[in-house]
Design brief:
This protein is an alpha+beta fold and about 300 residues long. The protein has seven helices and seven strands. The strands form two sheets. Strands 3-1-2-6-7 form a five-stranded mixed sheet, sandwiched between helices. It starts with 12 loop residues before the first helix and ends in a 12-residue tail after the last helix.
Length: about 300
Amino acid sequence: MRCAPSRPTGFTLIEILVVVTIIAVMVALLLPAVQQAREASRLSHCRNNLRQIGLAILNYESQQRILPSSSTSQIEFGIWSSNPTDYHLHSWAAMILPSLDQGLVYNQINFNVSALAPANTAPGSVRLAGFRCPSYTGPPISQSPLYGRLSNAYALRNYAAYGATSVGNLYQQPDGVFYARSSTRMADIRDGTSNTIFIVETREPSAAVWIDGGTSAVASRRYLDSNPPGYAGPENSLNYQPYYVANGQGIDSLFGPSSQHPAGISHLFGDGSVRVISPNINALVYDSLVTRAGGEPPPEAY
């Protein structure tokens, strides 16, 4: 008796294509959820960085009875000067390092000379995880040729201090908390610490060297050269590009207050809270959150 031929046990081409199609659909459905979960984790990490910075600032204030200034030199002096190492230029970020468990880096800094002096090149090149937002995809070191003439390794920070509502005010009449050679006390924040921004994220790839105080403070309005004396554009500075163009002075900033978080930009307030603010916030409302004693009524929502 002759047996019937057995059926092949492998998969047919059609069956393989169906399986591949199902897998592709499942990946397409799951990938956004995975990316969203990763971004939520990165945002949480960034917010924690800001909380730690806030605690360090408050610890500095409790010891010194004043908040750290954005820079220990006048704002007219900085990396754009012909001899920037002639100026002290130490930043708020450097001053709070001991309270961020970065005493080893802090002890390497020679505060008797310029932050940009050769003696401070090594500590200024340390890439501090607490100053880096995990969603930031830019370079870890400054891309500015002005810094490059001194060192090609100056490390960036992704957090900036708020000094004023406009670049003009930052120079002439600072109305924020942290500005050059400031001595702001908590009692000076008459708008209330829960209504006043201390620190904001930044994705600036050049003018954001953490050891340099000359570029460590920002303004809530983008720079507009044709609008003196405040030089404030009509838009808020959140994610505005370019934030500051210096007309040939070599200190352009592509971004000021900014972030790569899809949800918005993380802000540290004076009461230690961290809040995400949309770049679509009304410019006047945003200004009111930056002034330390503007007398504006607290915004109900932003």
